[in-house]
């Protein structure tokens, strides 16, 4: 079975000046290292595996990965900027993604980004990208205080369903506080919490009731803590339906309407995902090339003794092939 990694990121090696004072830019430190800058502040140090397709393909070979979905790095979403500024950076980065993936003979599959704060512009940029060769779209899990049940975002999600474009949801813009600003707590606790919150919004906000079943949507990082706390969520829906009654059905009824990736690092956590969400709704992801990702890719799936080989094949590649509308390759 072909192995497909649905959760990786890229950063272009260079891009033109974006035209505003605190716009992101890349400080090139050497031929193999650079630093993402936001204004004058360092955001993240990166290496050439973020922009060099030859390095990516070599790492994929070392990890026995056949195909990567290559998505934007969320810091570049720019949802806090004006729609036109966000569109400008989306156009620059989406075109750069095509340049990165073009030499890979289909092994690197580009996902685009869109100015999600403006649904009309977002739909227009998605259409442009799909027509130019992108396979799907990565979005952040919220736009300011607007979650995924916001009317404009629901409009965009329905457009994705209509176009047959898979959607990958990644947490971003986590809250900051003295308690969260140490020990990488924004990444360790904030990212799972953000993902869980947005799945709650999808359910209670009635998004799955309003958007057609054609929507293919996957949440990063195992869906956060959603699988662990589904029972608590279900109990709250039944016990306080007066407060949690905006969805037509209880939360468990929407299991199967979304997928999650496998970046949970431990077999016990993966087993919880499979037992709770179903083996057909989990796909291999790594968060490559960032240091909090999984290497070798797919390790937790391959080493899990509770999975049959057919189930491993689904998680390693079969489910992603359906998500991406690719032919299922069997060795």
Automatic annotation (TrEMBL):
It comes from the Bacteria. It is an enzyme of class 4 (lyase). Keywords: Decarboxylase, Lyase, Metal-binding, Zinc. Residues 4-325 form the Amidohydrolase-related domain. Its EC number is 4.1.1.45. SUPFAM superfamilies: Metallo-dependent hydrolases. Pathway: Secondary metabolite metabolism; quinolate metabolism. GO terms for biological process: secondary metabolic process. GO terms for cellular component: cytosol. It holds the Pfam family Amidohydro_2. One of its GO terms (molecular function) is aminocarboxymuconate-semialdehyde decarboxylase activity. Transmembrane segments: none annotated. Monomer. Belongs to the metallo-dependent hydrolases superfamily. ACMSD family. This is 2-amino-3-carboxymuconate-6-semialdehyde decarboxylase. It comes from Kutzneria kofuensis. The lineage of its organism: Bacteria, Bacillati, Actinomycetota, Actinomycetes, Pseudonocardiales.
